Each structure stands twice: as C-alpha cells, then as structure tokens.
Amino acid sequence: MDSFRSISIRRSTTQAINLGMMMTSALMMWKLWMCVSGTESPVVVVLTGSMEPGIKKGDLLFLHMNQSPICSGEIVVFNVEGKEIPIVHRVVTVHEERETEKVTILTKGDNNRVDDRHGVYADGQLWLEQNHIQGRVMGFLPYLGWATIIMTEKPVIKYILIGALSLLVITSKE
Hints:
The chain is α+β, with helices and mostly antiparallel strands. It is built from three helices and seven strands.
C-alpha cells in the first residue's frame, strides 16, 4: 500500500512540475516575443468594426515597434487616457513641429465618418503623441481573436476551458 501511495505522490508531483514548466515556457515565449517586437503587447484582438472592411472584429493583429517615423496610412494601436482598451485605427495625419521636433498624430477608423478627435480621444485631446502609440500593425490572422472575445463576454466558458485543460494535464499518462 505504501508503494502505491509513493507512486501516486510521485506521479502527481511530476504532473504538477510538467504543468508549471508548460506555463513557464509560455511566459518565456511571450516575454521573448515582447523583446523581439519592441512592444509590451505584441498581439491584440480587434474588438469593434471601426476598421472594416479591411480589419474585422475578431481579427488577431501582430504588432511591432521601431524607431522609424510613423507615416500616414499606417495602422497603429494606441492608448487614450481614461480608456483601458487599446484602439486600432489608421494614421491620417502626421504633424511635425520643426522647432521642437515633436511629432503628433491624428487617427481615424476606416469605417468611421469622422477622425478620432470626435469621441475617441480624451476630452480636449486633439492629437496623439508617440507615447500613446502601443505598436504598428505588421500582420493579422482573421477570426482567431473570436476565442478571446467569447471568453471575455462569457467568463464561464473560460473557466470551463481552463478546468478541462488542467484536468487533461493532470490525468494524462507519461
């Protein structure tokens, strides 16, 4: 009986270590991706239809950030004070002050009638500055972000999925 208990404890410990290693590997890959892309959030999910028809709700966007100047026509992801969720819109105007070399940016959703000064930016904000830009879109995968949207809108699905995956790892044989 003691040998059965010892094997059971050993198996449980091994499975716990495997789960921890899996989670650590995923975190390390995410951190590496952050370093390579130059942005704190290298992957984002589009949550609205403001960039349709090119980029749709549920698309998964891959971001990067570099030192080259931002140009009109680029699609950027930015943060606005007072809003937690980043916004994905196209740069329509880049304004550079020659004396101070300060660059300001105006954006607009492709599917929106007016630029982002009207309802997207914080009250009184007319331009974005470089510190607002989270990243530049370098590619996307259509529809893959729907999993995130569904799990955000229906948290019970997220808990069921996490529970099922944990149960699978715990009950799997070596």
